[in-house]
Amino acid sequence: MTARVLVVDDVLPNVKLLEAKLTSEYFDVLSATSGLEALEIVQREQPDIVLLDVMMPGMNGFEVCRKIKEDPVTNHIPVIMVTALDQMSDKIAGLEAGAEDFLTKPIDDISLFARVKSLVRLKVMMDELKNRENTGAMLGWNKSEDVPETFVPSNTSILLVDDNEKVAKRVGQMLSEIATITHSTGGENVAERAREKNYDLVIVSLSMRETDGLWICSKLRSFEETRHVPILVVVDDCERGSKQLVRALEMGVNDYLIPPVERLELTARARTQVRRKRYSDRLWENFHLSMQLATTDAVTGLYNRHYMNSHLETLLRHARQASKPLSLAMLDIDHFKPVNDTYGHAAGDEILHEFAKRIARNVRGVDLAARYGGEEFVVVMPDTVESDAEMIAERLRQTISNTPFTLADGTNINITVSLGLACITDGILTTADLLERADSALYQAKHDGRNRVVIANAA
């Protein structure tokens, strides 16, 4: 996976060394020798990841990282702090400043590449979410807003997987102030059980005796429900542990710790991962809400005409490829203009809303109900032959006509609906053909006295 990497170090030989290593792995490398220069490049070039030296004159790496993370334009760019120091206080300072990882010089090549690739994959996903949100904002959708972060047991849940009861108890106590901890001793079905609850973080020990921690990580990444849950692994500082770590990062693990686990570092890393997950969740929720607003009708809550047309194209293509039936009913509320003229447009909207609710309750889960425009509606019935579609259409007609519509002021109004039904045949090649056939049948139903179902072939 190629990416643009910014290397920041005031010592030019260090810059050249990292540049050579990353270039050999086909990364596009930018460089800066001061904090101010780094911030300018970050703003201008928007790199995919920043390798940031801690000890620099003027503005140190912690300050640079903090400024990157405070800017909404750049705060999603992963930062790896690089230093010759190996003090726990430096790690905590870097993580609190917002850094995703912390490397100590001399840097091991395999670990470096694995970490960079892992964080780049994460940024690719975040970039796509932000792009979708920005596109939505251009269309007038609301953007997600930053909310104050709190980490307490009532709103944060962590799954801890470790068969060492003593270690697990100690880790659980360290995190008890910020999260509710669920402990598992391992087993083949840990990942399956994790699907049942929306955990904010999963911590997996890779040194378990009876369970392969990497297998758990792999399964978590394979399930849709847990694919984006952050995973932090605890891995031993040995040759076997190094190999496990590389494999873990390659399969999408987000972070790691080396025993003995220190409370401040554990808490800082847990907060970082949960904070990133919440940000990602907000982007997803905002995107889905925006999509819902873009594809549904504001008055009725049904799909709108634009979505129906697009989806009908897909359904028609699949029906033809699989030689399966497809039916479509076009509905029009009878004498709707007098309702608006007599009771007002607010009452008309009440009728439309209740009409849509009755339609939605009386179609199948596979069917698509949409407002076509005004008082016209469409119900698309995949894999449905004409006889079954006629029964569904007749049920819809009866659910409208058999029970009066009651307005907010208690007024009862009798409403009926006319329906035109069409099914795909050899002569129907496009969605426009199908809609036109149903519209012709609907016209016939109106002409014949309304409150009835007319099949296009009979029309």
From TrEMBL:
**Which keywords does the record carry?**
Phosphoprotein
Catalytic activity as recorded in UniProt:
2 GTP = 3',3'-c-di-GMP + 2 diphosphate
List the top taxonomic levels of the source: Bacteria, Pseudomonadati, Pseudomonadota, Alphaproteobacteria, Iodidimonadales
> Where is each Response regulatory domain found?
4-120, 157-274
Please indicate which superkingdom the organism of origin belongs to. Bacteria
Q: What InterPro entries does the annotation carry?
A: CheY-like_superfamily (IPR011006), Diguanylate_Cyclase (IPR050469), GGDEF_dom (IPR000160), Nucleotide_cyclase (IPR029787), Rev_trsase/Diguanyl_cyclase (IPR043128), Sig_transdc_resp-reg_receiver (IPR001789)
Q: Which organism is it from?
A: Iodidimonas muriae
The protein in question is named: diguanylate cyclase
Query: What range(s) does the GGDEF domain occupy?
Result: 324-458
Q: Does the UniProt entry include the keyword Ligase?
A: no
Q: Which residues carry this modification: 4-aspartylphosphate?
A: 53
Enzyme nomenclature, EC number = 2.7.7.65
SMART domains in the cross-refs: GGDEF (SM00267), REC (SM00448)
Pfam families per the UniProt record, alphabetical: GGDEF, Response_reg
